[in-house]
Specification:
With 763 residues, the chain is α+β, with helices and mostly antiparallel strands. The chain has helices spanning 232-265, 307-310, 315-318, 334-337, 340-349, 365-404, 426-430, 433-458, 474-495, 502-524, 532-552, 557-579, 592-609, 617-640, 645-670, 677-697, 708-712, 726-747, and strands at 5-11, 20-25, 30-35, 37-40, 46-49, 51-55, 73-77, 86-92, 104-108, 114-119, 126-132, 140-145, 163-167, 170-176, 184-191, 212-214, 220-228, 275-276, 282-283. Helices cover 44% and strands 14% of the residues. The strands form six sheets. Strands 9-17-11-14 form a four-stranded antiparallel beta sheet, with no helix packed on it. Strands 10-15-12-13 form a four-stranded antiparallel beta sheet.
Length: 763
Amino acid sequence: QVDAVRVYVNSSSENLQYPVLFVVRQQKGVLSWQVPLIFRGLYQRTYNYQEVGRTLCPSEPTPETGPSDQIIFVDVSSMAPFNIAYELLVTRLENFQLETNKAFNFTASPSQPQYFLYKFPQDVDSVIIKVVSDAVYPCSVVSVQDIVCPVYDLDHNVEFNGVYQSMTKQAAITVQRKDFPGEQFFVVFVIKPEDYACGGSVPSSVHGNVNRTWNLQRTKNLQVTIVPSIKKSVYVQAMFFSFLSFLSFYLGSVVVAFVHYISTDMKLTVPFGSVSIAGSGIMTSSHPITASTPEGSSYGAIDESSSSGGRQLSSPERGPPAGSDTDSSVEEESDFDTMPEIESDKNVIRTKVFLYLSDLSRKDRRIVSKKYKIYFWNIITIAVFYALPVIQLVITYQTVVNVTGNQDICYYNFLCAHPLGVLSAFNNILSNVGHMLLGFLFLLIVLRRDILHRRAMEMKDVYTLDYGIPKHFGLFYAMGIALMMEGVLSACYHVCPNYSNFQFDTSFMYMIAGLCMLKLYQTRHPDINASAYSAYASFAVVICLAVLGVVFGKNDMWFWVIFSMIHVLASLALSTQIYYMGRFKIDGPDSDLGIFRRAAMVLYTDCIQQCSRPMYMDRMVLLIVGNLVNWSFAIFGLVYRPRDFASYILGIFICNLLLYLAFYIIMKLRSSEKLLPIPLFCIVATAVVWAAALYFFFQTLSSWEETPAESREKNRPCILLGFFDDHDVWHFLSAAALFFSFLVLLTLDDDLDAVRRDKIPVF
C-alpha cells in the first residue's frame, strides 16, 4: 500500500505584497506555493485563494524504512515586516490508490486539486478512466501523468506533463500499460478558475481592483471509475467482421453474375435479322432499322431521314468498325459540333415538344465515349493530388496529439475510442473499409458490363446500334473511384476529427452526389451532358465555397448574403439550360442591349403568352419544385446561418439528387416502362439501408461545433462487438447504401435494352 500525505494551509492575510511562502522538502522532491495563491484568467483577471490544499508526492515502503516512516520538512516564511497568522494541517490519505471497477467520489477546487495513484492489475493491458459529475461547471481538467515528482496539479502547469482533457460533466481517457514502464500512473484533477475553456461565459474586460476576486467558491464533486478496456482478441474479431461483412457482397455479386450467365447461355441464339439481348428478353425485327420520327414530334422539325445529306440518325453508331472503341486522340468532339448544318439541325431537334432518345444520341459513339472517360482519368488525378496532402496533415495532427498529450485537439467519442499503434481511435478508421471494398466491387461490376458491351459490338449485335440506352461507362468508373476515395478521406478525417479538417470528410461526398446527378441526366441526354472539365470545375467552386463557409460562415452575415445570391442565381441558370436542352443563348444584334431584349422576349413568350401550359410541362414541374427546394435552402441558410456549413451544402446536393431520382422513376413508370427485379431490389435495399444509416448518423456522439468539454458530454459507449460505436455503424451502412444507390443507376434502364431509341422518351 502506498502512503500519501496531504497538507492544508490557511492564512487570513490579504496582503499580496507579502505572501506567506510554504516549501515542503521530501526525499525525492520539493513542492512550494504561496498564500494567497493567485490564479490568472483572461484580461489580466486574478483569482486569489487564502486556503490551499496540496497532496505531497507519495513514497513507497522500502526494506530500509517501515511503511509509516516518512521525513517531511515544511518551511514557512514571509518577507512581511509584521506578523502573519496561518494554520497548517498535515493528514494521511486513506484512499489514495484507485481500484479497478470501483467508483470513488471526492471533491476538488482550484486551490485544492486532487490526484490519485493507479496500478495496472496483472491481466490488464489497457484501462479507461471514466470521470463524471452532476454539475457542468466549474470547468475542470483530467490529467494522466507518469510517476514523477513533483506532480503538476495546478491550472498553469497541468498541461506540462502526460495526457489531459478538459471536462464539464464527463471525461474518458484510455491508458495503455505499454506507455508506463512502471505499470502505474497518477490521475490528476484540476479545477480551472474560469469556465470559458469549457464553453462557459467569457469574463468581461474591466480595469482596476475589480479584476481581483477573492476565495471564489468553485467546488466540484467528481466520481472516477477505472475499468478494463477491450482485449487484443476483440481487435481481431472486429477486423474479421469488417472485412467478411463486405466480402459477402463480393460473394453475392458472383452468384448473381453466375445465375445471369447460366440464364443467358440457355437462351436460344437467333439470326442477326432479329434482336438478341442477353438477359433482357428477345424482340424480333422484320424491317430495317430506320430513324422514323414518332407521331406528334414534328414541332418545327424537318425530315430527319433526309437531314445532313440523308444520314440516318444512328449512322455514327454504325460508322466505326467493330472493336474500334479506342481513345484515339485524332477524334475531337468538335468534329460534330462545328458543322453549321448540324448546329442548325440541333436547334430544330432539341426544341421539339416530344423528344426521344434517338434525338439526343446522334453523335459518334467513339467521341462521346472518349468524352465520358475523361471523368474517370480526371478523378484519379484529383484524388491523388487531394489525398496526399490530407494524409500528411492528419499524420501531423496525430503526432501533435501524441507528443503534447492534448486530447482537446481531436473530437473523438472517448468512451469508444480504441487505440492501435499511433492511432487514437482505430475503430473509426477501420469502419471506413466498406467504402473502399464496395467501391472496388462496383468498379469490377462496371468493368464486366463494359467487357460484355465490347463483345456485343464485335459481334455486331443490334444491342449496340439503335436499341437501349447508349452504353457509356466513364461516369460509372468515376463514381466507383469517388466511393473508394470517400472511404480514404473519411478515414483521414477520423484520424483526428475537428473543426478544421471536416471538409476532408465531405469533399468527395459532393462529388459523389454531383456525379450521380450527371449520370442520371446523361442516361437520356448523352449528347448534351456536361463535360468532365466543366463538371469538376463546378465541384471545385463548391469546395471553395465550403472552405469559405467554414472560415466565415459562423457570424459573418455578408458571406451568407453572397452565398444565397450565388445559390439562387446558379439554380436559375441551370434550370434554364435544362429546360431548353442547352439551346438557350443570350445574343442579339445590339451587343449588350440584345441580352435584355432576348431575356424579355423569352419571359413574355414562355411565361405570359403560354402561362396556362408551358411548352415542356414535365420539365417545368421538375424545375419549379427544384427551385422551390433550393430557394428554401437559401432562405434557411440566410436566416439560421448553420455552423456546420459543410453538411449544409451536402444537404443541398442530396436533396437535389433525391428529387431528380424520384422524378426520373416517376416519369419512367408514367411512360409505361417497367422495373426489372434487380433494379427493384436495389431500390428497396437502398431505401431500407439509407433509413437505417441515417438513424445512426443522427445519434450525435461528438460535435466540433462546441468546445471539447461540451462535445464529450455526448460521448457514448460502444454498441457493436464492444468495438464500434453508432458512427461506425453509420459508416458500414452508408457504404452499403451508396453501393446499392450506384447499382440503381447502373441497372435502372435494363428493361430498355430491347427497345428502339426512337421509342424511348426523354425526360
